[in-house]
Design brief:
single chain, Rossmann fold, D-amino Acid Aminotransferase, Chain A, domain 1, Dna Ligase, domain 1, four-stranded parallel sheet, globular
Length: 336
């Protein structure tokens, strides 16, 4: 594959305690790269991946985040940083020049683009302005105008990982939950089948998309997923990427409704949790991301995929053991 032209690089991946960062770290190791697996939780499962260098980092909003990440990259001679969780994108973008001065590469959308995706209210505005179908959405004072007659979803305006997401049957319940959910946003619930598009947008704006049907979803993650092709879904995903000026690795989610229309619900500025299916279907997603990260052309021919491929996930016990041993390994930056 084209990524083989690159010598092995040392790449720091954040958020290895969750599926996207965990999967990305594992995929990079399989491609022969050295991975610094970083997370704010000392028992993050990604620390247990073979051959990684585990490292505990602060939360993205911590006052010492910038200093700690920069010091870590310098001390471990990191070549690049890839965010496995959205929270890390804004502070990393702010640090781009600082990290660039010590030779660390990033590949992130610009701040306006990232904000348009992370902030669900802004995302709704951008899609609506561009004529892209998306669920009716209310936030701030507009929440008082939520209609009585529709099913609703209550979620944080800047949430991630399906945290604090609630499905409700009516306005009264939604209004009560808005008192509990941080910075709430209310959307009309869409009925139909859900999809994810794993996307890689090169620096010229050309995009490749791998479409996956989310056949069974549990706690926001696709437990069963199948690759498919659909021109209407493909075209609306492509329009969404253009509308927000997406760049690099990201994923778009939406629904094909019960009446056959397509609607977009969100765009995450990170790899999706189920991207392993796209790679199993033939798309060199991680390898081509690394190419773009280090300034090489993205080979879109290597992002072709086969439809009708499936993936199943289940929760298993990864490890049991001495808490202190794993914490010491993560804090020292060496495998246990």
């Amino acid at each position: 594959m084209s990524a083989d032209r690159l010598r092995p690089r040392r790449i720091l991946v954040t958020g290895v305690g969750a599926n996207p960062g965990f999967g990305l770290a594992r995929s990079l190791v399989r491609l022969g790269h050295e991975v610094v697996a970083a997370d704010a939780h000392p028992l993050a499962p990604g620390f247990l991946l073979p051959q990684v260098v585990p490292r505990v980092i602060p939360l993205a909003d911590a006052p010492d985040y910038r200093e700690r990440i920069t010091g870590l990259c310098r001390d471990l001679a990191v070549d690049a940083v890839v965010a496995g969780i959205e929270n890390d994108v804004p502070p990393l973008a702010d640090m781009a020049d600082q990290l660039g001065d010590i030779g660390v590469r990033l590949w992130l959308p610009d701040k306006e683009s990232a904000s348009a995706c992370i902030d669900k209210a802004r995302f709704h505005q951008v899609l609506t302005e561009n004529g892209i179908a998306t669920p009716a959405t209310w936030w701030g004072e507009a929440i008082s105008r939520v209609p009585h007659s529709v099913e609703l979803v209550v979620k944080p305006r800047r949430g991630h990982g399906a945290q604090h997401v609630h499905f409700v049957a009516g306005r009264e319940h939604a209004m009560w939950l808005c008192e509990m959910v941080p910075d709430p946003l209310v959307q009309e619930r869409v009925r139909g089948w859900e999809f994810t598009a794993d996307c890689l947008v090169d620096r010229s704006g050309r995009a490749s998309m791998i479409l996956r049907r989310r056949d069974l979803v549990k706690a926001g993650l696709a437990a069963v997923s199948t690759t498919f092709r659909d021109s209407a879904v493909h075209d609306l995903v492509a329009a969404t990427l253009r509308a927000v000026h997406a760049e690099g690795l990201c994923c778009v989610q939406g629904f094909v409704t019960d009446v056959g229309t397509v609607t977009i619900t969100e765009l995450n500025v990170r790899v999706a949790g189920g991207f392993a299916l796209s790679e199993a279907a033939g798309a060199d997603l991680t390898g081509q991301m690394v190419n773009g990260l280090f300034g090489l052309p993205v080979d879109h021919a290597r992002l072709a995929y086969r439809s009708g491929m499936f993936l199943t996930n289940y929760v298993e016990t990864l490890a049991v053991g001495d808490v202190a041993q794993l914490e010491r390994a993560a804090l020292r930056g060496a495998p246990s």
